[in-house]
Amino acid sequence: MSSAIIAALHYFALAMSFWSIAERAQILWLLQKNQNDTITRDKVLFYDNFWGLSALLIISTGILRAFYGYEKGAEYYLNNFVFYTKIGMVVAILLLELYPMFHFVKWRIRIAKTSGVTFSALQLKWFFVISSLQIVILSIIILLASLMARGIGMV
Fold first, then answer.
1. In terms of pTM, does the model score above 0.90?
2. Taking the alpha carbons of 147, 3, 10, 95 in that order, is the dihedral positive or negative?
């Protein structure tokens, strides 16, 4: 039973991350047209929070599933080259997130001190591009997980 709950939480977190990244990307696209829209700016940060929470849930439930006996076991995953590709994709998403995360933290600090936050159109465009890339990579991760579940990639 606990295996099913952890798997469900993992899948829910994947869906939540997909949704929150897509919403963040859409709002960043809109924010490029009106950089002083505080409601839209706050929505970016709201969805960014959801993305962060879902990433933590994905990672924690993924570790439980892979290495703590809730799925096929560590030996299965560690002997599967698709697993390493999938982990590489997770690392890519996390590395891509460093740039927006750093700037969103700075924005939050500036918002707390004063309501006046200026945005660079170029930054907003990069945040949008990064979010879009993350959606593509997350889609590939889901495909890789499906392949692994069917035994593809075993060494």
1. no
2. negative
